Structures are given as C-alpha cells and as structure tokens.
Structure of Methenyltetrahydromethanopterin cyclohydrolase:
Amino acid sequence: MVSVNELGLNLFEELVEISDLLNVAYHELDNGSRIVDCGVGVPGGYGAGEYFTRICMGGLGEVTYRMGEINQFPQPFIDINTDFPAISCLGAQKAGWTVKAGNFFAMGSGPARALSLKPKHTYEVIEYEDEFDSAVICLESDTLPNGEVMEKIAEACNVEVENVCAVVAPTSSIVGSIQVAGRCVETAVYKLNELGFDTKKISAAIGTAPIPPVRGPKLAMGVTNDATIYYGRIFLTMNAPEIKEYLGKIPSNTSKGYGKPFNDIFKEANYDFYQIDTSLFSPAEVVINELSEGAVYHVGAVNPEVTLKSFGLI
C-alpha cells in the first residue's frame, strides 16, 4: 500500500533543496531531526504554501493557485484535488494530533499521524496505517519545535529521532492561510466521516477555497476557517447510493451557528469551543456525483457577504 510518509519525505527533501528560493529556512537540530520553518522567522510564500499543503496530504494531493473574485473583489484561490480522499484527507491532512512538550504547543497533521495512529479510530475506519522508517509532520505553531518535541514525535511514531522531519508555519502567516484553505476538501471528507458515512467509497475529490488575507494572530483562526465555511466549494465522486441519506447534513449552512464570521461566533461563545455547534466546520457548497445510479446532487451555497466581512473587505 502507498506510504504517505515516503511520499511526504520526498517532498520534504525537495523543499530543503530549494529552500533559498521559497523564503523558508532549513534547520537541523543536535539530535539529527530536521525542520523547515515556513513562516515563524521567515516570510514564506505561495511556493512554500504549496509544498506545505502537499506534504500535509501525504503526497496524495495536487495543489494549484488562481486569481478569482468574490463580488468583484480580487481574491487568490487554492484548488485541491486527490484520488485518495480518505487516506490523504483523514489519514494525513486532518489536524488530529495535539503536540505538547514543555511550553511547546502545536496542532499536528500530515503523514506522521499514520505512524502514531492519532487518533487510532480514524485509521480503523479508513483501514489504513503506514509503515516507514521516517516520520514527516506538519505543525501549526508560532514557535519552532526543539529537540524534546522532536524526540516525543519520534517516540510516538516508533522511528529514530534523526528520521523525524517537520514543516512549521503559524496560522497567521501566508503559508498558514494557504494550508488551512487547502483543507477545504478535507473538511468535506471529515464531515461525512463524522456523520458515519464510509469515506472509502469516495473515489475522487476536488475543491476550492479563497486564500484569506493575513489579519494578525487574534483573527487568524477565524478568518482561515471562514474561507471554507462560507466559500469552500467541493465536488466529490463516489460509489454510494446511500449518500442521499446524508445530503441535508453536509453543508455549513445547516449549522445553528451559521451566518456570522467565526471570530464573532467564538466571542459570543465566550471563547469556548465546546459552546460552538461543530456542524459549522463544513464546506459552504458541495456537489456529489454518485456513480452507481448516475446521480448528481447539490447542497449548500457560498456566502460572499460573510466571507468579505471576515476578510476585512467590507
């Protein structure tokens, strides 16, 4: 079976090779583990964002950019496609690992999760786990990990610490905005998984979302989430006539919290995630092509007004 860590390592090595051309910085720690800073102490950019996102998907997704518009406002978009939706999105890209060591905290995603099996239930459901002697992790953090952090990752992945590689970017950075918007397809696959749908039946997935402007650390989490919640557009191909039973629960506009920028919703919930309706974390609009019956379904709609308000354009 395909190894997301092997594919991710190939991309990591490419990133290291051309780091000077991508406004990123390569570091090798005393214990031999390796890090590419994509936005903590460096500017990063679109090239680095492409690599970060492809690594996050375990090398099983393609990433392109284009210029579009939202209500006549020029806006960059990221386009994502994958022919391995369950593995690339749930088995790699999903931010399913909270990495803590000392004062360090990061949301961990990427191929290394398929070695550490975090969370284990995800890999049982998609019937996948990786076997490889290197671990490649993507860390969403405003600080770089030290040797202790990398040792902890190595232990969880059952690999030697010198075989641990990390790419790191803060949410509030160009690469941060790109890689979160690049989770638009993953958001759809994740939502279906949470609803109990067998995501292994999705044979191909493609999607797009606007890349949000960098508006500072206080607004970053909300702005990046709003890109998919209010303007993410996804097309899924599958062999699953039972998808009809799930259609009404897929898009974000079915959530009780829908209709305001995420930062406003978060503030009203007294900054308590547990007070937010989790069904909000969904793409705005989804088209599904069900192959066995030749059916096509459409649910949801984009919301330009809330998107532009979140992005600071109106």
